[in-house]
Amino acid sequence: MPSLSNISPPEQRGSSPLPQSNLASRVLRGIVPPLVTPLRDDDSLDTEALERLIAHTLSGGVSGLFLLGTTGEGPSLSNRLRAELVRRACAFTAGRAPILVAISDTSFTESVRLAYLAAEAGADFLVAAPPFYLLASQDELLRYFERLLDAVPLPLFLYNIPSLTKVGLQLPLVARAFELPRIAGIKDSSGDLPYLEGLLRLAQKRSDLGVWVGSEQLLLEGLRRGAAGGVCGGANLAPSLFVSLFRAADSGNCSEAARIQQQVDEINEALVATSDPPPGYIQSLKAALERRGICRRLPALPLAPLSDASLEKLSPVFARIEQAL
Question: What is the pTM of this model?
């Protein structure tokens, strides 16, 4: 299988057009799981587990699949592995749901290469967070996104996750970015409700923009205020539960939506439950998926999988999660 390094940036390509997303003119709505990346070893994709995970989430009624995000450990994967994951996931999904691919990278050129690979594989949207490590100003970030939009072949969602990128997409920047052609919207994982409300006000200026909630505890609050949906890690584990929450909120069934949000909160709290030392969310989520027979609990380096001792300590936590499903 060709690697990501074999995909040429646009200035080196021929004139053959790439397949274009047929979803560019409508707003995607619903629940889109940020898929975990099932691994066999440090740099090997577990393709059978990936197929099980995709089948599991699609059977829960999700509206799309998000590859290589934070929950998918995208920045920790090799270019070769990222390329394989995108191709395999698009092939397994086979048009049954839209595919979003995170192209976040410290290198502009590598982001563009991945964008073209995603388009060729059949993805529908791209997602980009600010480049991390070297911090850019808001003006520099706006110019970065302008150049990225000029260079990539699919509609693009911005991705605000300042806890990991160390720089947030401030509202004035987003307002200017929302004026750019082929911006599809933004995924916000800041956990900041006033900021989310600001995004939703900005998005009202265009009917084709979607604001996505990345913080599970704010999912219902975001939906009540007009968010397009949620990109929630827990939907890997319980896709139908999150879909039920979206549908209840969308139909105005406030009491049912609140009841399901409480279940979502319980699952989220269980996944981040403390032990000594505390496990990370991704390790706990993969361990919970392993218990359900979907994928192994192995995360990408530098993260370490939960030990057997930690699993034993967390057994009551996982039991509570399973009761909530």
Answer: 0.90
